[in-house]
């Protein structure tokens, strides 16, 4: 269980999060949606242990979060790949940094690249890949660390529509297979509906609404009318939260 209690974070005088509280059950998924600048990335960084809240507390599985946690992986908005390292070395690097033996790293990296269907790209540099392939490498780099908590920041927003759908399906599969807790930030209502069991609507440093999403993981809705109604509700909540 992730517990965020009354967390406030400011950059200088500017408040980025104001009294934010939330719960995410272990093994569940949560999509955080909100307008640009509403504090989504700040919340994710706080959950990753990269920013310490000025007020409030975060606990993960009962442990107060005071530092970076080894079993948390974060995928950044711009992928965060090292351009001067090959695909393979981008995955080897975090493992070696954590002291894993060379042979073990090699096997784990191959296995991960294979499961993401990019083993044939292993010796290329990130600059030579498509956006979707780069996204897979970023996911691979997060997954080799065998996280129990995966945090993703607008992971598919830079991709074209078809590639984005493939990545969304891949993320769903990864969540199912690895039994991890998934928290993703998005500005797409469609992505939130597909990947969030719970959807949090954010605006101006606050959580404006918490939605239990009946359309999670469904590519085609059995009842398109009530799905469209939920899209409208979220759209309205997004606008109301942003003023
Ligand atoms: N490093 C920073 N220094 C100063 N202000 C920042 C910094 N990072 C973010 N902010 C401000 O904090 C607010 C929230 O930013 P952010 O968490 O990045 O929002 P989002 O990810 O939802 O777009 C914005 O007003 C932004 O301008
Ligand atoms: Mg952001």
Describe the secondary structure blueprint for this structure.
Blueprint: E1 2-11, E2 14-24, E3 29-34, H1 40-47, E4 55-60, E5 63-64, E6 72-75, H2 87-97, H3 102-115, H4 131-143, E7 149-153, H5 161-178, E8 181-186, H6 189-195, E9 198-203, E10 206-212, H7 224-241
Parallel strand pairs: 3-8, 3-9, 6-7, 7-8
Antiparallel strand pairs: 1-2, 1-4, 4-5, 9-10
Helix pairs in contact: 2-3, 2-4, 4-5
Bound molecules: adenosine-5'-diphosphate and magnesium ion.
Describe this structure in words.
The protein is an alpha/beta fold and 243 residues long. It has two domains: 2-71 and 147-241, Rossmann fold (3-Layer(aba) Sandwich), CATH 3.40.50.300; 82-146, no CATH class. Helix content is 37%, strand content 26%. The strands form two sheets. A six-stranded mixed β-sheet has the order 6-7-8-3-9-10, sandwiched between helices. Strands 2-1-4-5 form a four-stranded antiparallel β-sheet, covered by helices on one side. It is globular and about 50 Å long. The relative contact order is 0.18. The model has no long low-confidence stretch (mean pLDDT 92). Bound molecules: adenosine-5'-diphosphate (ADP) and magnesium ion. Magnesium ion (MG) is lined by residues 40-41, 77, 153.
Features:
243 residues, Rossmann fold, binds magnesium ion, single chain, alpha/beta, six-stranded mixed beta sheet, 2 domains, 7 helices, binds adenosine-5'-diphosphate, globular
Helix content: 25-40%
Lateral strand order in the biggest sheet = 6-7-8-3-9-10
Q: Compute the CA-based radius of gyration.
A: 18 Å
Mean pLDDT: 92
Proportion of strand residues? 25-35%
Q: Total helix count? A: 7
